[in-house]
Amino acid sequence: MTLTSEVFIQATETDPAIQARAVIRGGQQRLLAALRPKVALLTELDLGTDAREAALATLTDFCTGPVRRYLNATDRALYTPAAGSPETRLLIRALRTAATALDQDIDTLASMDNAHRAKAIAQSIEAHLTTHLAVEQTVLLPALAELSGGKLAVLAANFTTLIDVERLDQHRSGRVTPDD
């Protein structure tokens, strides 16, 4: 006999795969919701020099903190399990290449000493991350749901745990950003 906690209707909100996708989507939405105003502050407002420099520092801290944490957790919890499968091998290669390019943009942003010149790279980071997350949501997560044999909830839990562990590590090392 099946326990009632194991009974669900596929493709409904009781489906563990749907719940797992919602957890990951929620994390993605929070990441973008926190990033967008920081980019806008630097790129869309006519700020004085000191305010622009402060906006650059805030954006840089966010990108080197929560954005990188997200990229690392996604690679370990979602990409690695899918990388060995022939059905998703090329997708994972493409996502990892895109994540590397995004990481390089973050390095470039972090090395900027002039907030006025950082506008283009900030816009690039926002555009790359938005596209990257859309591909994960529309292509990777459905593929993982099929490949994992119903284990997407476990992968989502691993993803959440990795983000939390990295956040704790940053707190312990004193590298805390305002969005942590």
Describe the structure concisely.
Helix 3 (89-111) packs antiparallel against helix 4.
Structure description:
The protein is mainly alpha-helical. Helix content is 76%, strand content 0%. The protein is built from five helices and no strands. 28% of the residues are buried. The model has no long low-confidence stretch (mean pLDDT 85).
Biggest sheet details = none
Beta fraction: under 5%
Radius of gyration using CA atoms only: 18 Å
C-alpha termini separation: 44 Å
Instruction: Please give the count of helices.
Output: 5
Helix/strand layout:
Blueprint: H1 16-43, H2 49-83, H3 89-111, H4 119-147, H5 152-173
Helix pairs in contact: 1-2, 1-4, 1-5, 2-3, 2-4, 2-5, 3-4
Characteristics:
5 helices; 180 residues; single chain; 0% strand; mainly alpha
